[in-house]
UniProtKB/TrEMBL annotation:
Superkingdom assignment: Eukaryota
Assigned GO CC terms: mitochondrial intermembrane space
GO biological process, one term: mitochondrial respiratory chain complex IV assembly
UniProt-recorded name of the protein: Cytochrome c oxidase assembly factor 4 homolog, mitochondrial
Amino acid sequence: MTIHSQEVTDPLEEMLKKTGCIDKHYKVLECISETKDWRKCQEQVKDFRKCMDTYNNKKRESEDFK
């Protein structure tokens, strides 16, 4: 009997890969993991939010042209 391993993908991770902001998301998670305090990670949160805002604005603009 052979067991085939299937890679389980996280829907959130897949969505973040599409935005191009996954690296910034990982930096937020890393900071929170290291500091154990999200309040100390505001710079990383701001960078992630800016990236997501840019993605959402571009997405909105492209939808307006359809």
